[in-house]
Design brief:
about 40% helix, single chain, alpha+beta, 3-stranded antiparallel β-sheet, about 550 residues, 14 helices, about 20% strand
Length: about 550
């Protein structure tokens, strides 16, 4: 194609157009280099969490702000992205803070939904659902709990006592791996739920974990329930004694060089005794009653209380005459003698006295109830490792303990568990050599392709190569083309070289290849044809220099 008909050649012949094209290419090259540099510095992002609520996303970003983990939010999906090499660290950090807690709509549902046109049944259902969600959120704030769900069974209230039913609740807790709830925490959850529902008793709350294990036994008074509690109590007692022994002997023998097992025979029998004792030596008069009856009959006059006795005539008198005197030596009749004596003395004929005296005896009433869960017998078995002896050359050997050392260890164990020979406790201490696990081989280092930083290194190297290529292949020729005139630049591009610099500094640069005299003349003719003004200016500068 002829240069006259080539539009690109005609465009280049426009004054200043070539410089504009070169400047545009320079700007594009610089932009590509800067982009590559930022690409190297900016880490690649991976998804951390998606489909999280706005409130929970804010909590996650607040937690990440306090760390050196770079993150950003995808404007389209709303997912949270973090640096690819910090995904696991970010998840561990957020898991320690209990994030994310999971989606759920609580009492904010009551604000979003209007009450106009809503039935009472729907209002109650929404309220119960919101209450369940709020209780689940509250339980999820406990450190061992990852998430929780609460189900409430609240019957309708009734004014009739026979139709009134008690509410109940069930709680499902999803625990973090490796964590568990102790008895105190389970009891706290039960009381928390029971206190949040009017009329709900703690015995009607059930707590279950994600494994389907029942964490509490509401209202379980059966023998099996009591046996389970007794077994747990015995285990706690044995574990406490074991920890005492290990913590006492570990500083003396070294860590992991002592093993102890304690078996406790527990007595869970309930005994109650009531005893009443009397002390006959310690007495006191409580009450006393005295009654006296007297009857007097002086000189035949009636006396006493009016009645039958006072109206009774006196007994007949025995007549005595001189013709029939009593026999000699015969004793007078007793009644007659007493009557005669009473009449002569004027004393009462009858006298009656009744005395009633009540004594208070010292009494002791005692009620004794023996405690349950007492220890009937302890059996302790302790195994200690041989002692290690280091020689002068640095070698280590094991030797059994001497008998005095075993006796001292036995004495310490007895003191630690409260040894009681009267109840039949037994302590056995043995000295044996522990099994030593052979040293594990060091894992092989990952290969070059398995290195997680290989991709980042390769990306950095490629970006650096791209920047260097742009600098030497694109930017440098453009800068040289801007410094060379249009004629010199055209010659440089057409022939692959530059003209030698003239005295006026019109053309500069060393030739890329040696040109013959005929080639130089041809180039000069082409330049004279294409740009006669430029050639005339160069020749004028030569002539001025020669002068």
């Amino acid at each position: 194609m002829d240069a006259a008909t080539n539009p690109l050649a005609a465009l280049i012949r426009i004054p200043g157009m070539r410089q504009i094209v070169l400047l545009a290419g320079l700007a594009l090259a610089i932009t590509a280099g800067v982009t590559a540099a930022f690409y190297v510095r900016e880490p690649s992002y991976s998804m951390l969490f998606s489909n999280v609520g706005e409130q929970e996303a804010g909590e996650i970003m607040n937690a990440l702000n306090g760390t050196d983990i770079a993150y950003r939010v995808d404007p389209k999906s709303g997912a949270i992205l973090v640096a690819s090499d910090q995904v696991h660290a970010a998840r561990l950090k957020l898991a320690a803070d209990g994030l994310p807690r999971g989606a759920g709509v609580g009492l904010e549902m009551m604000q979003e939904t209007g009450a106009f046109g809503t039935s009472q049944f729907m209002e109650n259902a929404r309220y119960h659902h919101a209450l369940e969600t709020e209780l689940g959120r509250t339980i999820s704030t406990l450190r061992p709990v990852q998430s929780a769900r609460v189900h409430l069974a609240v019957p309708e209230s009734s004014v009739f006592l026979r139709k009134r039913r008690e509410p109940s609740a069930s709680v499902l807790v999803n625990l973090y791996p490796g964590r568990e709830l102790d008895k105190a925490q389970v009891a706290a959850i039960v009381h928390l739920v029971a206190s949040s529902i009017p009329g709900l008793e703690g015995s009607r709350v059930t707590v279950v974990n994600q494994q389907g294990e029942l964490l509490n036994a509401p209202g379980d008074a059966s023998a099996l329930g009591l046996s389970t509690q007794q077994f747990d109590y015995a285990q706690r007692i044995e574990h406490s004694y074991t920890e005492r022994i290990v913590s006492l002997l570990a500083p003396l023998l070294g860590p992991d060089r002592v093993r102890a097992t304690v078996t406790a025979d527990m007595d869970f029998t309930e005994r109650e005794e009531t005893r009443e004792a009397y002390d006959p030596e310690n007495t006191a008069v409580r009450s006393e009653q005295v009654a006296e009856d007297r009857r007097t009959d002086g000189a035949g006059a009636a006396g006493g209380i009016p009645g039958a006795l006072s109206n009774t005539p006196p007994p007949p008198q025995v007549a005595t005459n001189a013709a029939n005197p009593p026999a000699a030596g015969a004793a007078p009749a007793p009644a007659a003698a007493a009557d005669a004596t009473a009449r002569s003395a004027g004393a009462p004929l009858n006298e009656s006295m009744r005395r009633t005296r009540n004594y208070e005896v010292d009494r002791t009433l005692s009620r004794t109830r023996s405690p349950t869960g007492t220890i009937r017998k302890l059996s302790v078995a302790v195994v200690v490792d041989h002692k290690r002896v280091t020689a002068e050359d640095g070698t280590t050997t094991t030797q059994p303990l001497a008998q005095p050392e075993l006796d001292e260890i036995t004495r310490l164990v007895k003191e630690a568990v409260g040894f009681n020979a009267e109840r039949g406790d037994s302590v056995s201490v043995s000295n044996v050599s522990f099994y030593e696990k052979p040293a594990e081989e060091e894992p092989e280092e990952p290969g070059l392709l398995d290195n997680p930083g290989l991709f980042e290194t390769a990306r950095t190297v490629l970006a650096a190569a791209l920047v260097l290529a742009l600098a030497f292949v694109v930017i440098r020729p453009i800068m040289r083309g801007l410094g060379v005139g249009a004629a010199g630049a055209g010659a440089d591009i057409a022939l692959g070289g530059t003209l030698p610099a003239g005295p006026g500094g019109a053309v500069a640069g060393a030739p890329r290849a040696a040109l013959s005299f005929d080639d130089k003349v041809s180039v000069a003719r082409q330049l004279a044809d294409k740009n006669p003004e430029r050639v005339a200016q160069i020749v004028r500068s030569w002539m001025q220099t020669d002068e």
